[in-house]
Specification:
Layout (H helix, E strand, L loop, with lengths): L23 H16 L6 E5 L6 H14 L3 E2 L3 E2 L6 H16 L7 H16 L13 H19 L3 E6 L7 H16 L1 E5 L5 E5 L2 E7 L3 H8 L2 H6 E5 L5 H13 L2 E4 L5 E6 L1 H11 L3 H13 L5 E2 L1 H25 L3 H12 L7 H8 L8 H10 L3 E2 L5 E2 L2 H8 L7
Parallel strand pairs: 1-7, 1-8, 2-4, 3-4, 4-7, 10-11
Antiparallel strand pairs: 5-6, 9-10, 12-13
Helix pairs in contact: 3-4, 3-5, 4-5, 5-6, 9-10, 10-11, 10-12, 11-12, 13-14
Length: about 400
């Protein structure tokens, strides 16, 4: 009965899985704060969502974008920035598409026509565009001006403009990164004069929302030059692992009512899951969205029966997921600078109750515990791999399990 075509689990990068787990606070932030405030003309910062690979940051924003489209908002596709590319050109192209949605090419105004032509030239030359005094504003200014015009049109249509730029850590050119962040930030802080009943004139924000997603190091990259300006214009969140209760809740429909599928003859049926299988998937996942989807998919493929058992979970994981799960965690460890890698390995060698900064620093050969303090702080606040406290613990549970147990192997 179960076939790969029916599987509701999607471990692939950037996909929005049908079996959704957690991140409720981020979805609520869009529905209850960001969108309604921007739609009402109230200033609200853009959102920067960072996290290690597999934390589900891109899938989260893609789900938000899907909801925005259903509500009639104007949404860019996921604008992934390849390493070494010009982000200004990529965003300029997306804004021209939004301009068509807004009906700007048909406006007939010379000012709008000149602006569109300017942005079209940016899509060709990007930040390398040669600018002379008579040529007009720099490329990033043209982006800001066009985004403001799109925002004005969205106001008239009672829509919100949503822009999603992904893999922002690949914007390594400081000048391109600064220009892009300033262009987006200037549009977010722009105020349109609005006359209230009684003749009072006030400034109103445009209905524009910006999401940036990428790896944790982007926070340092963006703050190195722009610092306080970036912090004032973008609210940064680093995703943590998902609670087991949220993962159990995501799988509960399999137990309570079954997951609906279409049979070969065009009829419908349902796939159920044993509670032991539910717990096994959650245990193997270690709170990681990618591993959760991987474990679910492997369990689904392990048999064609109408009930997913714990044995299906273990068999599917052993056959298909062990090496991929190990490679997933190894990639995270390989990205760590040597001092941070040595810190987590030293921490893993200690018994859980002995994981204090003093003991870890001693294992690393430091004379003072404070010598290891900055590394611990970065692994906690920036990377969300450990959590400082009494004692220290692994916040990234898959990393902790890999370093301290036989996981991802199952007995």
């Amino acid at each position: 009965m179960r076939t790969p075509l029916d599987s509701p689990f999607s471990p692939g990068s950037d996909t929005v899985p049908l079996v959704w787990a957690g991140r409720i606070e981020h979805l609520s932030d869009w529905r209850d704060a960001l969108r309604p405030r921007r739609a009402a003309g109230i200033h609200e910062r853009g959102r920067t969502i960072l996290g290690e690979a597999g934390s589900g940051k891109s899938a989260l924003v893609r789900r938000i974008a899907s909801e925005a489209l259903e509500d009639g908002d104007w949404v860019t596709p996921q604008l992934r920035i390849p390493s070494g590319s010009d982000p200004i050109k990529r965003v300029a192209s997306a804004l021209l598409t939004l301009a068509d949605t807004a009906g700007l090419p048909a406006a007939g105004e010379q000012r709008i026509g000149d602006l569109l032509r300017r942005v079209e030239s940016v899509t060709v030359s990007g930040t390398s565009l040669s600018v002379r005094a008579q040529d007009g504003p720099e490329p990033y200014t043209a982006l800001t001006d066009l985004l403001i015009e799109i925002g004005r049109a969205a106001t008239k249509h009672h829509a919100v403009v949503m822009i999603h730029i992904d893999e922002v850590q690949n914007i390594t050119d400081e000048h391109a990164r600064s220009q892009l962040l300033i262009a987006l930030g200037d549009a977010l802080t722009h105020e349109e004069p609005t006359t209230l009943p009684g003749g009072l004139s006030v400034g109103s924000a445009l209905p524009i929302a910006v999401y940036l997603t990428g790896l944790p190091e982007f926070a340092d990259m963006a703050g190195a030059r722009s610092g306080a300006t970036f912090a004032r214009r973008f609210q940064t969140t680093t995703l943590e692992t998902i609670d087991d209760d949220d993962l159990l809740t995501a799988l509960h429909p399999f137990i309570s009512q079954g997951w609906p599928i279409t049979t070969a003859d065009g009829g419908t049926d349902r796939i159920f899951m044993e509670p032991d299988a539910q717990r096994a998937i959650v245990e193997l996942s270690c709170g990681e969205p990618f591993l959760f989807q991987l474990a679910g998919q492997c369990a689904w493929h392990a048999s064609t029966d109408s009930i997913i058992t714990a044995e299906h979970v273990r068999t599917g994981w052993s056959r298909q997921a062990v090496h991929e799960a190990e490679a997933h965690v190894q990639r995270i460890l390989d990205r760590l600078p040597p001092r941070e890698r040595e810190f987590v390995e030293a921490m893993a060698e200690l018994a859980p109750e002995e994981r204090s900064l003093t003991n870890i620093a001693e294992k690393l050969g430091h004379k003072r515990a404070t010598d290891a303090g900055p590394t611990a702080q970065r692994l906690d606040l920036t990377r969300r791999i450990i959590q400082r406290g009494r004692p220290y613990r692994f916040q990234h549970r898959a990393v902790g399990a890999y370093l301290t147990s036989g996981w991802p192997e199952v007995s």
